[in-house]
Amino acid sequence: MDILRIDDSREETEKMPLTKNKAVLSWIDEMAAMTRPDRMEWIDGSEEQLEKLRAAACGTGELYRLSEEKLPGCYLHRTAVNDVARVEHRTFICCRRQEDAGPTNNWMAPQEMYAKLKKLYAGSMEGRTMYVIPYSMGIVGSPFAKYGIELTDSIYVVMNMVIMTRVGTEVLDALGDSGDFVRGLHSKAQLDEENRYICHFPEDNTIMSVNSGYGGNVLLGKKCFALRIASFLGRNEGWMAEHMLILGVENPKGEVRYIAAAFPSACGKTNLAMLIPPEIYAKKGYKAWCVGDDIAWLRVGPDGRLWAVNPENGFFGVAPGTNEKSNPNALASTRRNTIFTNVVHNLEDNTVWWEGLNKTPPEHALDWKGQPWDASLGTKGAHPNSRFTAPASGCPCLSHEFYNPQGVPISAIVFGGRRAKTAPLVYQSRSWRHGVFVGSVMASETTAAASGAVGVVRRDPMAMLPFCGYHMGDYWQHWLDMGEKIGQKPKIFNVNWFRTDDKGDFIWPGFGDNLRVIEWILARAFDEADAAGSPIGFLPKPGDINLEGLDLAPETMEELLRVDPALWRAEVDNIREFYGKFGDKLPRELAEELETLSKNLQ
Ligand code: GTP
Ligand code: SPV
Ligand code: MN
Q: Would you give the end-to-end CA distance of the chain in angstroms?
């Protein structure tokens, strides 16, 4: 199909290609010939065009406009009920050799997958418009930005991409006639669960997603590009793409120190990235600045330090649990120009609600499925993985460095997950190499962010299990190699905000109070605090974590920091079994670290 000659009743400008780039045009031609859209529209990023699309989506019910007075510029969207989370079992890394995808990824040979997808995409956009979204991950024109084009038949995807990335003509201008862009094709097709595929072709810079309309499966700039494809690129080019928040902590002297933290999905990244310092900290002059809440691209700077940029431009955050107390900054970010997905529609004032927003569910409301909802019957109104898509610019604690193309220098890397027992509140690794070990054996209870069972402990190395675009053993080796290249290595830590008591209640207050732990981490990173040795690494000594203004008994802190040798010996056995999957791709250094841990526990 010749995209220059599509019959279209829309304005001339929207069907005209916004570029002369031959690689872009011929690829779009090919995708359009396969999916056969009735119309094509190039997204130039103008407010005028977006407003028209929003109106169109409201006309079909794809979006619902919320109270202009209470939530200006905000919309509600509901996905299909069988399409509410990432689908890891239907996510594939299609590189030529299976051994390059490794034991933790689903794999299919590229030719085989292309053939399979071709059938699913055939005519999938008939009667629909194909939107062409040129977008940038990172600041357009900066040396670390990477460009992509997503083709989609969903206005919801367009609207989300506009918030989450930098979209429009300037991206095509920056790309020029280069063929160096990530090709992304998305079609809702029939939303057929049995034929839902999220496929990555790292060797072709290509992503293909079909039969889904849920964020993580269809906003191709995010997990698909900025983690799976980018991790592959980073390995080849000598940098790292990580599932990490970036947080700046300003001390009373006005110095800002940065951490990057990797937690699995729905384990507290957005919350930590936007934390509010406890009162006693705020009074002393501590401030927290958010640079990123989900993804960090890390590289070694000319000064030998590790520098991080956030390639995104918005937040795709978990709604349930977000409230004025737990995360006021995230909540404030969602008060304008935000898209809410799968939350409760409060019909009383045309706003939204979710579990944990407050204790007063609306009386007159629709649940996430669009059904009349009566909270007193005990069913959940919002889906546990309901989300908000909010522009970063609306976040009250957004760091100025968010706009700095060089990014920020990282002093500490923090790993963490949900562990009811085993992992203490915080510990520090003994070296970069030991830190890589700590990251590689991360484990966490599964959450509603992905389809499947919730609350099952699984190994999730560096929180990248579902997001690493190549062999996990090679990825660990890349971490070790990066350690050789970083002059001033960040110190590596592990945290666990989720330890529970015998009743299953969280022992640690979490949220803003996590700054107390971060303070110790940063002090350690700058050699300003002491620590005690233990079989698993360095622990804070009693009194090292500031508990001023917190109602927490010293014995509780002791419990939070307790390392139970029996549990850890079981952990060693489990790690050994896990490592067994990687055969000779397991770096020797990590096998040695495991033996050291095992000996330390005897
Ligand atoms: P993704 O966006 O899926 O990657 O999740 P995330 O890692 O950004 O997690 P988020 O900050 O959205 O938190 C997920 C859930 O964990 C929410 O229900 C939070 O309320 C809860 N949570 C976050 N931080 C803490 C904490 O320190 N303690 C406790 N108990 N819960 C927390
Ligand atoms: C996650 O699951 O880690 C998310 C949401 O941030 S999604 O974009 O769906 O992956
Ligand atoms: Mn998040």
A: 69
Kindly state the tokens that stand for 371.
């059904």
- Supply φ then ψ for residue 407, to 5 degrees: 80, -155
Query: Which token pair is 292?
Result: 């990123």
Tell me the average pLDDT across 1-29.
73
Contact 243, 467 (CB under 8 A): yes
Ligand 2: which of 186, 220, 223, 225 to mutate, most ligand atoms within 8 Å of CB?
A: 223
pLDDT greater than 70 at residue 5: no
H or E stretch including 157?
Answer: helix 155-164
Stretch (H or E) spanning 186? strand 182-187
290 is catalytic: no
Q: Which residues make Cβ contacts (< 8 Å) with residue 395, sequence separation at least 6?
A: 274, 290, 315, 329, 330, 332, 333
Mean pLDDT (the chain, rounded): 96
Structure tokens at 209: 């997603």
Mutate to test the pocket of ligand 1, among 243, 246, 318 (most ligand atoms within 8 A of CB): 318
How many CB atoms within 10 Å of residue 121?
A: 20
Angle between helices 472-485 and 432-440 (to 10 degrees): 160
pLDDT digits (tens, 9 = 90+) for 36-46: 999 999 999 99
Q: How far, in Å, from the CA of 202 to the mean position of ligand 3? A: 25
Tokens describing residue 105 = 């990824």
Please state the pTM of the whole predicted model: 0.97
Pocket lined around ligand 1, Cβ cut-off 6 Å: 263, 265-271, 293-294, 317-318, 320-321, 326, 449, 497-498, 506, 510-511, 514
Give distance in angstroms: CA of 27 to centre of ligand 1. Answer: 39
Ligand nearest to the CA of 268: 1
Element (H, E) at 259: strand 256-262
- Torsion angle defined by CA atoms of residues 401, 403, 408 and 412, in that order, rounded to the nearest 10 degrees: 80
Residue 197 CA neighbour count, 13 Å, CB half: 22
Q: State the pLDDT at residue 12.
A: 60
| 54 contacts 81 by C-beta, under 8 angstroms | no
Phi first, then psi, for residue 519 (nearest 5°) are -60, -45
Active-site option among 267, 290, 395, 397: 267
Find where tokens 């698909």 sit.
Answer: 224
